[in-house]
Here is the input.
Amino acid sequence: PSGLSACTHALIGLLKAGDHLLISDSVYGPTRNFAEQVLRRMNIEVEFFNPTNLSDLSVKLKDSTRVIYVESPGSMTFEIQDIPAIAEIAHSINAFVVMDNTWATPLYFRPFEHGVDISIHAATKYLIGHSDGLLGIATANERAWPILQASAHVFGETAGPDDIFLAMRGLRTLSVRMERHWKNGLQLAQWLQSHKAVAQVLHPALPENPGFKLWQRDFLGASGLFGVILHPMSKNQLSTLFKEFKIFGIGLSWGGFESLALLADPLPRLDDSNGFKLGHLIRLHAGLEGAQDLIGDFSQALDAALAVG
Here is the structure.
């Protein structure tokens, strides 16, 4: 019935008391909360690793490591992970790789071809595509499927027929919509790089991004979701920025046809070793509006914020 329930049931199905779970430090916040607040109460050891540092992952492996949970690109900060290398490490100790693949959808990243055992999607977002339903999807390879199926059956939690219908509807236009989200997001990201108020743009498909080569190697496209770090602003300036948006709405659940902006800092992170600049992190979703209209809206909002002083 939701993307988060797909994440949580996959983890509960694979893990038992005494197991060790390694999670990317850039994981989706509610998944992180579930691991810290629920799994730890079940006597499951939860540990986070740097998503771009394979050495950090390797040194944290234990005999009890059962699952390595990844999300590429990372939530809010959009680090691309080397999924084939992580899968090789995991399978060498007979651990499972679980991946949140919501950003790319199955259209632009094919998880099982890269060693993932269970792939999760918040179908609420791009698969439904119209911000009018809730749905989660978990798919598995032959090795993991019996475990995933048994877990889902035991909990008895199922999706409603109306939401499944909405996902079936969304799949008919997924390729057309994703191409537009990709194009709009990349054009907006490229423009933001040149604005004086912007310190850093976090978009995997930008050549300047540290994960660009991995994205280029493993992904077949990009979505409309990315991050931008602004130079430090006052609270009044940030308030002005969001009030001045005419097209961008404020919202958590991206993936629909509308463009959204969300203030995303501060973030729970173990360290700051991935080179993020100081400032305010805003998560952007480029919808299906005209790219130049989105650029114009962001331009006038930023100018208004800077004028406040």
